[in-house]
Structure formats: C-alpha cells, structure tokens
C-alpha cells in the first residue's frame, strides 16, 4: 500500500479542521492548521486526502502525522511516515522527533512501530480557577 500513498503540500490546511478530533490531536498541530503553516502536508490515497502531517525541516526535525479516523489501521500512517522521513533526511537532521498523547494507546503503538523511542514526556495543564487579578509590573527603562 505504501506505493499508493502520495504526499504534497496542503494549500488550505484550515479546511480540514472539522475532520480533526480536538481531544486527541496535538495542540501545536491544530495551531499550525489554523494558521495555514507552510509545513503542513496532505496524505493522499487515490486522490482522496486521508490525513495531514506537520513536517518541519530543521537540524532537529519534527514530524507529526494525523490520519483521519475513518482511514486508520490501513497502513496509511506508516507509509506517510516513511515518505516524510525521506523528505526530512534531505536536510541532514541530527534527529527527527514527534509527539503524541500518552493516554492514546494507538498513537503510542504507531510511534513505536515507526521506530520512535520515548525519551521524555510532558504534562499539559489547563488552568480552570478564577481569573487572575490585574496587576502592574514595573519595567525598568
């Protein structure tokens, strides 16, 4: 199936926001979609978009793949990872990192199957208390 997958730059990433499950997608990925980041790619299968990817070509490259729920478990993610990693290796990166929610077993399995190892984890927290008091902070001239 890998030969049937193609990757191309996404012209208008915002149009796919309605297909993203906001509870499972990474916040930075959703922000990149909202801002039409130039590093967003479409994952295509038979001319249909089956997912999106954020691939940043840098010395410390970054790759995040999101396959739409209706197209999962068909090998599209792995095929997309291979193609995008080849693209990222053209800039001779030191490493390629990714991120995923640790409470998502399928994402963890996918990352491990693609050869990614867990080096660290972070907790994102959302403040739900009362509003902060406005204050004036002195600024030195």
What do these coordinates show?
By secondary structure, this protein is an alpha+beta fold. Helices cover 22% and strands 22% of the residues. A five-stranded mixed beta sheet has the order 1-2-3-4-5, sandwiched between helices. A hairpin with a 2-residue loop joins strand 2 and strand 3. The chain is globular and about 60 Å long. The relative contact order is 0.15.
Helix content: 10-25%
Oligomer: single chain
Q: Quick one: biggest sheet?
A: 5 strands, mixed
User: Rough shape?
Assistant: globular
Q: What would the average pLDDT be, to the nearest integer? A: 83
Structure annotation, total helices:
3
Low-pLDDT regions: none
Write the layout of secondary structure elements.
Elements: E1 5-9, H1 27-34, E2 40-45, E3 48-56, E4 60-67, H2 76-89, E5 95-97, H3 105-113
Parallel strand pairs: 4-5
Antiparallel strand pairs: 1-2, 2-3, 3-4
